[in-house]
Amino acid sequence: MPLAWASVFNPRSFRGRLTLWFGGLSLATLLSVGLYVGHIATEELADFGGQSLHASARSAADLLAANLGERDKEIRLLAQLPPFTRGDPRAPDLAKALDLRIQASGEYAWIGVTDAQGVVLQATGGLLVGMNVSQRPWFQAAREAPYTGDVHEAVLLAKQFPQRTPSEPLRFIDFAAPILDDGGRLRGVLSAHAHWSWVTDTVESVMTQSAVRRQVEVLIADKEGRILYPFRHTATLQLPSLARTSAPYEVVHWNDGKPYLTSAAEVQARTSTPLGWRIVLRQPLQAAVEPMQILHQQLLLFGLVTALVFALIAYRLATRVSQPIEQLAQAMHHVERGDQPPVYPQDSEQVTEIRQLSDSIQSMTGALLRHERELETLNASLEQQVRERTEALSIANQELERLATIDSLTGLNNRRRFDARLHESFQLMRRTERSFCLMLIDIDHFKAVNDQYGHQGGDEVLRRLGHLLTQCTRVTDFVARYGGEEFVVLVPDVKDEDEGRHIAEKIRTTIAGAAFPAVGRLTASVGLSCARKGDTDSAEVVERADKALYTAKELGRNRVVQL
After folding, report:
1. How far apart are CA 150 and CA 145, in angstroms?
2. Which of 50, 124, 373, 527 could hold 440 in an S-S bridge, CB 3.0 to 4.6 Å?
3. Which helix (H) or strand (E) holds 110?
């Protein structure tokens, strides 16, 4: 602190004594009034906060109850419609209607129809069609009566949907109802899986920005008091026992050892199966009384400001001798912080020595600020150059990566990329037992094409073949140029070897039926091999496919041979 300012608080000086007397008297008066007002305001504030928590908890519970009841009623009514009770459950129009319903709003993740044995006949997006779900709790319960299930992690659909929140698993709640014919006999079950995020978004919708700022936290608890939401509290937090009183809120200690202003409201949903959920709003007691603490701080600040005003009045009355020096010190302080331009004393009646000192400091400060601006400009230029060079290097690296994995002639993946994909597929098969098929494809009599039409004509044939392979394979299939006139197709997730042979035949017939520019018709031989549990590495799959290709050549070409 500069010496000129320190002298203001010197109790032995006239300025210091006058400042302390005026400031202390005003501060003591305001603090006395603040303590009295604060005592009354604290009680009112606690009651207002508790009532506000209860109103929000009740609103969230009622809104969630209404939404759950509507979804439960909707599934029950849909199960009674003639297309379900009398029509063909495999009708395409029925699948289209289910897809349209799931597109209408975002609460449903999946809607499906099963037969009486639990086999999925229709489903949105075709998911799980043909699968047997007879062991799922919603199917077993819905065979007897409409059913609403508690929240659970996704099982069959876990790999079909992207995980919305990386820090927690995908979770659903189930709605299901039996489909009965006119004679009351069970035809099947209509089921819908609703996103758990739909439930949480419904609850969070009642939270205002003001509540978030006040650290109000909304939770969902089941009938046993376990916390269902937020997920971070699921395994660590337990709803404490609340007193059975008419009070809409109370202060309780949770198992994290902290006191909270807490209010709970039961979700009185009219669903087929009672859920027993409760919406709980809690606010740290410290945050609940924080406005009162802020009020105390504001009163203290107001008292300090008032005391400062009186002190300044006393100071101004006491003397103006040190004012120019104090102004110079303050100007230097602004220069040091750089928060605002410095203001120098301009009084024409200043002492000659002080005016000379002020002029020298202004000249020195101006030179320093000019040098600082020059340095800032230079730094900005250097940073821009670094960003431009970094961006150019990143683009060059991306292009090098692309050139290293793409065949320049056909635009397909190259041998290097194929080897990496084959290794990944083989490791995946070991972990999940999901098999894959490998096809080696070789153009028949390609040497004759090169001899007759030249290498340029041969290159056109290779490009045309690469285009045909891309067209007649699935998006999930991997197509690459293996080398020369040989191409390779990796088909993941095949059910059995017959499926792989069907795809290979499709590729062979497509090539045989296609027209190649300037060359006409060509055929190709295909060697097919599917990965097996006994394979020790991926090389065995490639070796079988290679042997199958040579066998196809020996048997007369234009055929598929599987080993």
Report:
1. 16
2. 527
3. strand 108-115
- Cα–Cα distance measured from residue 258 to residue 34, given in angstroms and rounded to the nearest whole number: 28
CB 176 within 8 A of CB 189: yes
Name the CATH superfamily for 415-562.
Reverse transcriptase/Diguanylate cyclase domain (3.30.70.270)
Fold of 1-319: Beta-Lactamase (3.30.450)
Active-site choice (485, 497, 499, 543): 485
Helix ranges, 205-289 (H):
209-213, 285-288
Among 197-206, 395-404, 529-538, the range scoring the smallest mean pLDDT is 395-404
Peptide bond before 259: cis, by omega within 30 degrees of 0?
no
Are the C-beta atoms of residues 440 and 486 closer than 8 Å to each other?
yes
Chain CA centroid to CA 254, Å: 29
pLDDT per residue as tens digits for the range 257-282: 889 888 888 998 888 888 889 999 89
Greatest pairwise CA separation for the chain in angstroms: 118
Provide the pLDDT for residue 415.
93
For residue 308, the model assigns a pLDDT of 74
485 is catalytic: yes
CB 120 within 8 A of CB 110: no
What is the chain's length?
563
Residues 142 and 516: their CA atoms lie apart, in Å, by 59
User: CA-CA distance, 479 to 223, in Å (whole number)?
Assistant: 54
Rg (CA), the chain: 39
From the list 104, 102, 118, 277, the residue with the least C-alpha distance to 200 is: 277
Instruction: Report yes or no: 530 and 440 within 8 Å, Cβ to Cβ.
Output: no
Asked whether 192 and 108 are in contact (CB, 8 A), the reply is: yes
Give the chain's mean pLDDT. 83
For range 18-44, the mean pLDDT: 66
pLDDT for 44: 66
Give me the residue label for tokens 């105390």.
296
Q: Would you give the end-to-end CA distance of the chain in angstroms?
A: 90
Full strand arrangement of the beta sheet holding 524-530: 478-483, 486-492, 436-443, 524-530, 560-562
Q: Is the pLDDT of residue 7 over 60?
A: no
